[in-house]
Amino acid sequence: MDYRIKIKTDQQILNLYKKIKQSKVDIPTHVNECFGEKLLDLEAFKWFNENLKKIDGPPLHTLITGDNIVLPSPPIVEPSPEYKEKLRKLEQRLKNKEYDAMTKNVDFRRVRLPEDTISYQIKQINRQLIAVLQFVISTAAGFLFGFMGIELMLSTTFDLGFKLLLGIICALIIALAEIYFLAKKLSEDYEPLETCGKVHQD
């Protein structure tokens, strides 16, 4: 796709181009093609501006209006099949949850959804607490490794400020890694399940 800005030639610009041709000026092939298509790229436009001065033409800014400028259109990106499939599964899951919520007071088999039980809520809270605790412990262990472990491994003594710097760097690296895996785990938890039931059809 061509992302270059182009200038559309109107009749006034074409008439000035004819005057330039009559002045026996060497016209590059590319410029001639651009005027034939009535669309000037920056190279042809620059050539036109330089030769316009030779024939004492009007100032260039008086020839250009908003209608002459042709901006490139952004490309239309087609969604990938994987994205479409995930979107379809998500819509299917949301429809199933809405249907279950509407019919659980009517159909005795749907009165107790897994999300409505206390045990399910406790399990979810425990999983979140474990994830937070794991994050804190891993970050603290990384800090201790940088603060004390490197010093013990090298059998040397560092200044307190340098030890703090090493500890913070190690803790930060581990914290970023933990955040990545935590976000990945959460995205997997919210990903639509393959075994979702079909939406009720009236």
Automatic annotation (TrEMBL):
Localization, per the record, is: Endoplasmic reticulum membrane
UniProt keyword terms in alphabetical order = Endoplasmic reticulum, Membrane, Transmembrane, Transmembrane helix
Q: Please tell me where this protein is predominantly located.
A: endoplasmic reticulum
The regions listed as transmembrane in this protein's record are: 129-150, 162-183
Q: Which GO terms describe its cellular component?
A: endoplasmic reticulum membrane
Q: How does it sit in the membrane?
A: Multi-pass membrane protein
Q: Which Pfam families match?
A: Vma12
The stretch of residues making up the signal peptide is: none
One GO biological process term: vacuolar proton-transporting V-type ATPase complex assembly
Q: Which InterPro entries match?
A: ATPase_Vma12
Name of the molecule in the record: Transmembrane protein
- Name the gene that codes for it: TMEM199
